[in-house]
Amino acid sequence: MDLGHAELLHAFPWPTIMLDPQGFVVALSRPLPGLGVTVVSGGQHLRDLLPAYWDAVCEAGPGPCERFRDVARAIDGRWLHERVWMSAVRDGMLLFVEDRSEQMTTSQAELQRDRLASLGFMVAGVCHEISNPLTAVQSMMQMLLGRADVSAEALQKGLRIVSDNVRRVMDISRRMVDFSRVGDEPRVPFEIDASIIEAIVLLRQGLCTETVSVEHFPELGALVLGNAGQLQEVIYNILINAAHAVCDAGRIFVTTAMTADRRVLVRISDTGPGIPEEVLPRIFEPFFTTRSSGQGTGLGLAIAYEFVREHGGELRAYNNPNGGATFEIDLPAHSARTQHERQSEQA
Q1: Of 53, 137, 298, 303, which has the maximum CB count within 10 A?
Q2: For residue 240, what are the contacts with CB-CB under 8 A and spacing of at least 6?
Q3: Long-range pairs, 82-89, Cβ under 8 A, ≥24
Q4: Rounded to the nearest 5°, which phi and psi values hold at 323?
Q5: Exposure of 260 by Cβ count < 10 A (0-12 exposed, 13-18 middle, 19+ buried)?
Q6: Which of helix, strand or coil describes residue 174?
Q7: Distance CA 309, CA 121 (A)
Q8: Who contacts 87 (Cβ-Cβ below 8 Å, separation ≥6)?
Q9: Cβ partners under 8 Å of residue 78, min gap 6
Q10: What is the rounded distance in angstroms from the CA atom of residue 333 to the CA atom of residue 83?
Q11: Is the pTM of this model over 0.70?
Q12: How far apart are CA 110 and CA 108, in angstroms?
């Protein structure tokens, strides 16, 4: 590289990496976290120096157009969020590295604020849901304490009722505490079908019957940006509801599709009786449940709705014309091209 190119790289406001056509680093304009300029003595491959950047380049694939990928790297015990812009040049590729850690921190703070606001709307429901089991506990304790001739059988029954109600209060408390924490896991691109497969495995482990059939129709390369664990929880909650809907004997279909407007749609349908029309408008309300008392907290779908909304998506439910219900998770697709697009370019 002549002096003109070196001066040009230093003129960019972000650290800039020049690659040759094979991916070897030709020049680095300024130090990057975890990598100094002096480390790049020439001849090293990007794959060995900065594997996360190389993965981003490979994922983006060939092409003359400018594009970017979001990368999260752990440096000295903290997460660094970067956007790697790629621009093809005549003799290789230029990578521009934008540090977006501050924006991500702000985004996390906003997410935490929104999460607490959502919790505020749930407070009335929480008080109601907690007061019912506490009232039952108090009544039972008063009855047991007020009688001197309580049989061993009645005592066991009373303590079991107390235990069940205390467990319900603890379940509600745990779900609310978990929901209140945004966490600091980085939002990274991932294939939504990987989360679906893991959720299906969990469902099968939890079911006591093999008469529920789950059929999965994935879409190769359907990427979303977000928290894989949260979306797996969303999918699992919908699957477990579908399994209850078919009364442990029926079929569940999970279909992933990419739409023309760059959305990822996950449809989870079942062959159950469908959702009563009067229930549909309330199905995502906190603590609303059609199950019998003590069966679930009624928070699963409400929290799932919030998780999807935080990912810039929408969670919908409707009845199928031919029977059964469908839940539809509508998420923005990650900017990466689909596998189909890559294969088309390579053909």
Answers
A1: 53
A2: 203, 206, 300
A3: 84/53, 84/56, 84/57, 85/14, 86/56, 86/57, 86/60, 88/62, 88/63, 88/64, 89/18
A4: 105, 155
A5: exposed
A6: helix
A7: 16
A8: 66, 93, 94, 96
A9: none
A10: 17
A11: no
A12: 5
CB atoms within 10 A of CB 123: 11
Helices (H) and strands (E) counted in the chain, each on its own, are 9, 12
Comparing CA positions, the residue from 135, 123, 160 lying closest to residue 287 is 123
Q: Which of 58-62, 180-184, 239-243, 290-294 has the highest mean pLDDT?
A: 239-243
**326: which 2 tokens?**
């469908």
Q: Which of these, 199, 166, 210, 162, lies nearest to 300 by C-alpha position?
A: 199
The span from the CA of 329 to the CA of 169, in Å, is 30
Q: Are 326 and 317 in contact (CB under 8 A)?
A: yes
Kindly report the CA angle at 221 between 179 and 95, in degrees rounded to 5? Answer: 90
> Which residues, in sequence order, are CB contacts of 161 under 8 Å at separation 6+?
136, 137, 140
Least confident window among 27-31, 69-73, 163-167: 69-73
* In the block, residue with structure tokens 């100094």: 36
Give the pairing of strands 92-99 and 78-89. antiparallel
Taking alpha carbons only, the member of 51, 44, 40 closest to residue 15 is 40
Cα 65 to Cα 221: distance, rounded to the nearest angstrom = 20
Distance CA 128, CA 286 (A): 11
Q: Tokens at residue 307, please?
A: 């998780």
d(CA 338, CA 347): 14
Q: Which helix (H) or strand (E) holds 158?
A: helix 152-180
Residues 136-163: b if buried by 16+ CB within 10 A, e if exposed: bbeebeeebeeeeeeeeeeeeebeebbe
Q: pLDDT tens digits, residue range 290-328? A: 766 556 667 788 888 888 988 889 999 999 998 899 999
